[in-house]
Task: structure prediction
Amino acid sequence: MLQLKNISKNFGGLQVLQDVNFNVPQGGIFGLIGPNGAGKTTVFNLITGLLRASDGAIEFDGQDIGKVAPHKITERGIARTFQNIRVFKEMSLLENVVVGMHDHMHYGFGSLLLNLGGFRKIEAQARERALELLSWVRLDHKAQMLADSLSYGEQRKLEFARALATKPKLLLLDEPVAGMNPAEKTELMTEILNIKQRGFSIFMIEHDMRFVMGLCDRIAVLNFGRIIAEGSPDQIKNNQEVIEAYLGKEDAE
Amino acid sequence: MIELITNLTASVGFMDWWDGFWSTYNTVIFSLGVNAMLALSIYITLSCGLLSLANAAFMGIGAYTAALISMQTGLPFPAALALGGALPALVALIIGIPTLRLSGVYLAMATLGFGEVVRVIVLNMDITGGPLGLNGIPLKTEWWHIVLLLALTLYILARIRRSKIGRAFEAIKEDEVAARLMGINVAGYKLLAFVIGAAIAGVAGGLNAHYTFTIGPGNYAFENAVEILTMAVFGGTSTLIGPTLGGMILTLLPEALRDFNSYRAVVNGLILVLVILYLPKGIWDPRRLRAFFQRKPQAGGNN
Result:
């Protein structure tokens, strides 16, 4: 579904990614793990168009998206959440989700100005759909509250709902449980599995090994800008190079 | 019979008083509406998170365009006003593409620079009358023109607020990156806000020129740009009522402070400082007002 081919990225003299190759398959949950500073978020920023790769190609559904503007990439069906939550805090939950439907609301300026039936219908449908998405993450009872009043875990769930509002084929989750307490982690795990069951493909970056091993069908490991392993959770768990990257090398005796 | 006569003289007295009042104050009354429009013209860019200070220049372009059309062509007043809105919008479209990449104070500086460029161009052109400006602009603005156009501005802005365009503006203001990844064409919407603001400021300028009789390049300079911003911030930019009120109050304030004579500007400035200090979201802040009115009955219940 999503293919990274020989992706490299430099920031000035600093080489962040080197020859990164992997394939995110359709359906299921794909995980990208790696120690801090391995370049994981950079991978997401490249996929969503916020950064341009120095070399290599990114293909989504067989089409090159390497030079497509971020809002056009969203239109093509990739949505994401952020490591440091970025909900619209001064808006209600409902409005947050309706913003996500931006591309799917088609009415003319005249219809908008004169408050015609077409405009009213599309706005009403969007609100209805937003409520439904909020109910997916069990936040519909707070729809009219300001996003700012939510707890950290709830804001993350709101981000899920908002990302799903863009009608993505692929959902990118950037460290969804960073900074969450164990109860919140368990709850988010359920939410992510629910989203998967609704037929969305998920690609997540994560730090928390237990979380990744429990959720992902397939995992790639990034270390110092290079992919050092790719496979099923079990294969990754027993991969010598991965263990070294995370735990360090044992001294040869 | 006697009653009728006293009534008549009373009403004649009133009419005399009204005529005197109107001839003294009609420009102030007209300015209430025009300044409200100007405050709204900067509100729309602020609502998109843009601090643009080009609105005085756009007002000037609109004023000169409309005035020159009235003085030199036979086109009717509505056409002059429409072109007075269209030309600044076109200019905004052209200068917006490079400048709106800037954010925060950098955009403020660039737009102030643009204002200065406009002022110097106007100062040096023949058709604009150079430093003398334009004199003898026909007095075509009637009170209801201003009421109508202010109402129209409010209506359009209110409709935009409630649509996906308004939500896109707000999303951009809150978090540009998140907005972009929600599929919003950030650059496009910023440009739209900038152009709408320019058009409103231009029409306000056209109206203004047709009741002041004379305009000059100094009317649309730095101080005016700051004044427009002050009106919007003073009123509060979270609703449409805020800038409208702000524009009107700051028009009346200097008149109401006439008794302070030469200290007028000082008192005026003091009031501004106090409002900004104690009401940072402007005088019309719905959340604060709601909290204020909800607190009262509760306090009564406790007694």
